[in-house]
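P.,

For your records, the input lines for the assembly:
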Amino acid sequence: MLKKKERYVTAVVGATGAVGNEMVKTLETRSFPVERLRLFASERSEGKQIEFRDTMVPVETLNETSFEGIDIALFSAGAERSRIWAPLAVRSGCVVIDNSSQWRMDPDVPLIVPEVNPHDLKWHKGIIANPNCSTIQMVVVLKPIHDVARVKRVVVTTFQSVSGTGQKAMDELLQQTTDLLNFREITCAVYPYQIAFNVLPHIDVFLENGYTKEEMKMVNETKKIMGDPSIRVTATTVRVPVFRCHSESLNIETEKKLSAREVRALLSTAPGVIVYDAPEKKIYPIPIDVAGTDETYVGRIREDDTIENGINMWIVADNLRKGAALNAVQIAEKLIELA
Ligand code: NAP
Ligand code: 12T
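Structure tokens returned:
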């Protein structure tokens, strides 16, 4: 329960990681009302400092008293750390916005995308979950369509960048690429196979049903965020040798018929969405253009005439921003608005 204040003592847990680093930048660029910034990471980062608003902030390690006096903590240090430390932070009077998969499907934890279900913030009990990156960009686009035409089923295939896995995966893609171009042997540590010049139909771990955990996050999180368990989603999630931005091919079946033109009009006024769709001018979203932006870009909007009411589209968003850091900061901004 956040109390209204002028400024908030704000923490980033996992501040040295790919997402945490983006969180610090996002707090700065959005002029978030930070009273004091506290940064946490593992013992490996002891002694490090990170720049925030022209000052160097030391990186601390976590202990039982770390969260005393902190109003808002953005967690991005893995599910295990969130499982252990988020409840403790809440007991210290802190509101936790958690980027890991630990609490997302917990019925006591709201799973929030501010453009889609800000109303669910009302029932939080201290922890608020940030959805999976691939799910966030998809629901931002599905919501306005669902509101007018009811989405019955979605078939999604993702093309996910390595930054989704973290800093080590970005290093691995760069290292493998330079090694291959210099005729050197490569090593695989983060991914099971070479990721440079390759494509892997495997994100997160495989489950009993033959799907990956990433695919099932898209299925289950979409229903929870949209507040409609009847929406059927089937996903194939694929890792591609791209540093930043996830792309997705969506096939959407609606109850009510929508033309491609109507979908284009609908999405062009939707919050957080930019329609970038003029195939005759070779205009469609691509990761290198979308990297560093805040919106979900939509192109290739066209009717699927193999089913009654079907639409195909291609969407791209920056997974470290809207897929992670930005969405978390937007949740914090909404909380402040409601405080
Ligand atoms: P990353 O680059 O590997 O960074 C991990 C961060 O966690 C680092 O700051 C690391 O600190 C810290 N950490 C590790 N062990 C710790 C410990 N014992 N105590 C405190 N801090 C510890 O990974 P990332 O890509 O930023 O992802 C981090 C988290 O965000 C994961 O939970 C991931 O699932 C989640 N995530 C969510 C989305 C999403 O879909 N919304 C997208 C990407 C990631 P050191 O530098 O000291 O090791
Ligand atoms: N394995 O937060 O590897 O559920 O791209 C996000 C991204 C888990 C998550 C990835 C992952 C998550 C990845």
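Two observations worth noting. The mean pLDDT is 98. The longest helix spans residues 321-338.

Regards
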